[in-house]
Design goal:
Blueprint lengths: L2 E5 L4 H12 L3 E6 L8 H9 L4 E4 L5 H10 L4 E4 L6 H6 L1 H21 L4 E7 L10 E2 L12 H19 L4 E7 L1 E3 L18 H9 L6 E4 L11 E2 L1 E3 H12 L5 E7 L5 E2 H12 L5 E4 L10 E2 L2 H6 L8 H14 L1
Parallel strand pairs: 1-2, 1-4, 2-3, 4-5, 5-7, 6-15, 7-12, 8-11, 9-14
Antiparallel strand pairs: 10-13
The structure holds nicotinamide-adenine-dinucleotide and uridine-diphosphate-N-acetylglucosamine.
Nicotinamide-adenine-dinucleotide binds next to α1, α5 and β5.
Length: 332
């Protein structure tokens, strides 16, 4: 049985991916410093899957402890979700982001190298494309130009590091997955996006507004050149996203593979508000404010490459994500 080390495995996307990995019988250890997640996620994983991953509370920046984890087990694959992701905070504290995301990844790659682990799957982001002159983004497009925040820069730099390592070692296998906008949660409602930090993404903010923790949603602009004037993104159900990871590890080969994980369909902010209102049966208070610096009008994935090469495609909709979000919120 293959053994996988999942960094950031108690986080939102990592925990959902573990559920899908367990359906394929992988053995899993989680490494997380619990900066943005809770240890109770392991109990929830056990409730859903009847299996419990091994757990190391280790910071990727602590190379000594990291090394000890690799010394304890022989890993076949590392799935690397751990990272800081608050875009606004990254603008205010760029060094924290470079140290944690880039420095942490370098430590991880060094330990992998030292212990002969050759396979890594990395959580990247559509943000690496910057702004291009079409709303539909595919993997052949350039990256690294026009990234508007240090968080996005760390994703681009790590992608380049992985390519360099692959260049230096013909046996190294990396899959870079560029996520579009993950939303929703496991249908049990046990797991969800439960950040310790202040969210700046749309869905966690909608959730906080619906619970009364934030008085209203600020819609960042209704004057974009889109049908209803609000921004358009590609919202992918996290369960579909998780399935994409399983598909990816089954196709790994020497070198670097890069895939967009998205639905290929754009949804506007107003459409998201309407979908949430439909699922919750309640009005969501909002007001339209000015555009957010660095935002694009419209961005969605061309998922054709992942569909063809990974034999994967999304099956769930924004409506499914909203229904599952309500189950999660009603469970809290
Ligand atoms: P998350 O914050 O829920 O999970 C990340 C986990 O990594 C957390 O549990 C956190 O405690 C852990 N972590 C952070 N720094 C660490 C360190 N130095 N050592 C050990 N653990 C550390 O975030 P998520 O939404 O699950 O995102 C997972 C990955 O996907 C991240 O790399 C993120 O940048 C990337 N990504 C997320 C989105 C999104 O919208 N959620 C979009 C694109 C890419
Ligand atoms: C943002 C980040 C991007 C990061 C991605 C995933 C910026 C400029 N971009 O992208 O770098 O990779 O998250 O973490 O921060 N919106 C509102 N009100 C809100 C929040 C969002 O109207 O309170 C709108 C946005 O303008 C956008 C859409 O909702 O049109 C989605 O926003 P968000 O969830 O932040 O994702 P991205 O903008 O795609």
């Amino acid at each position: 049985m293959k053994r996988i080390l999942v960094t950031g495995g108690t986080g939102y996307i990592g925990s959902h991916t573990i559920i899908e990995l367990y359906k394929r019988d992988y053995e899993i250890d989680v490494l997380d410093n619990l900066y943005n997640s809770k240890i109770t996620v392991l109990d929830k994983l056990e409730k859903i899957t009847d299996k419990r991953p091994g757990f190391y509370q280790v910071d990727l920046c602590d190379k000594e402890k990291l090394d000890k984890v690799f010394a304890e087990h022989e890993y076949d694959i590392v799935m690397h979700f751990a990272g800081l992701k608050a875009v606004g905070e990254s603008v205010e504290q760029p060094l924290k982001y470079y140290e944690n995301n880039v420095g942490g990844t370098v430590n991880l790659l060094e330990c992998m190298q030292k212990h002969g682990v050759k396979k890594i799957v990395f959580s990247s982001s559509a943000t690496v494309y910057g702004e291009q002159d079409t709303p539909k983004y595919d993997e052949s497009m350039s990256t690294g130009m026009g990234i508007t925040n240090p968080y996005g820069e760390t994703k681009h730099v790590i992608e380049e590091i992985l390519k360099d390592v692959a260049e230096s070692d013909p046996e190294f296998e990396a899959v870079i997955l560029r996520y579009f906008n993950p939303v929703g949660n496991h249908p049990s409602g046990l797991l969800g996006e439960d950040p310790n930090d202040i969210p700046n993404n749309l869905m966690p903010i909608i959730m906080k507004v619906s619970r009364g923790e934030i008085p209203e949603l600020s819609v960042y602009g209704d004057d974009y050149p889109t049908p209803d004037g609000s921004g358009i993104r590609d919202y992918i159900h996290v369960v579909d996203l998780a399935r994409g990871h399983v598909a990816a590890i089954e196709k790994m080969k020497p070198g670097v593979l890069i895939y967009n994980l998205g639905t290929g369909k754009g949804t506007s902010v107003f459409e998201m508000i309407k979908a949430f209102e439909k699922a919750s049966g309640r009005k969501l208070p909002y007001k339209v404010v000015g555009r957010r610096a660095g935002d694009l009008a419209e961005m969605y994935a061309d998922p054709a490459k992942a569909e063809k090469e990974l034999d994967w495609k999304t099956e769930l909709t924004v409506e499914d994500a909203m229904r599952d979000t309500m189950t999660y919120l009603n469970n809290l």
